């Protein structure tokens, strides 16, 4: 039985490593405070000593690339307000000036105390192709627009307001109706 547990642990470790897994976070959606594990603290703040300690969201985001700060914080604030699923790609800059691209995935869960908490993982995607930028740089054709709208609708399912989801659906339907 111990051999099976060791094999399962090795398999999980190898799978996480292959995925680019960096670390985990927990976000108290009421207080706004965040607890990072060692990997998340290292990549977001450049210091593993922050691991396991409750810190402010502002501290947590201090390592964000300056060009990403203005849009990431509102996304997180919306997640804290609405709950659901969280997904964002952004860049972080280490104290040494090294830039990394992260995929941040999470969801909110209602705890036994009745309060919602967010839990998530950080995945380093620095060395992976930048598909979104390729799509954005591609010629603006009808299929590309419809594909982009479908992606936006899927992302909006768990986190966007009802009005935003309806507007995306209306835009997609309008474009599709012009094809006939």
UniProtKB/TrEMBL annotation:
Ranges for domain PAS fold-3: 60-114
Coiled coil (UniProt feature): none
Any single Pfam family the record assigns to this protein: PAS_3
Name of the protein: PAS fold-3 domain-containing protein
Organism: Methylobacterium brachythecii
């Amino acid at each position: 039985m111990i051999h099976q547990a060791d094999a399962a642990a090795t398999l999980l470790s190898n799978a996480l490593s292959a995925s680019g897994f960096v670390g985990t976070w927990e976000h108290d959606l009421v207080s706004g405070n965040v607890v990072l594990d060692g990997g998340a603290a290292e990549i977001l703040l450049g210091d593993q000593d922050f691991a396991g300690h409750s810190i402010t969201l502002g501290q947590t985001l201090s390592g964000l690339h300056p060009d990403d700060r203005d849009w990431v914080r509102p996304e997180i604030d919306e997640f804290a307000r609405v709950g659901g699923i969280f997904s964002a790609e952004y860049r972080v800059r280490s104290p040494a000036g090294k830039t990394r691209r992260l995929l941040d995935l999470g969801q909110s869960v209602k705890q036994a105390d009745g309060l919602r908490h967010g839990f998530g993982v950080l995945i380093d995607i620095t060395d992976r192709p930048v598909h979104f930028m390729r799509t954005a740089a591609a010629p603006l054709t009808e299929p590309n627009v419809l594909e982009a709208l479908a992606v936006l609708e899927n992302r909006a399912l768990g986190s966007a307001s009802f009005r935003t989801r309806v507007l995306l659906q209306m835009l997609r339907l309008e474009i599709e109706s012009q094809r006939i």
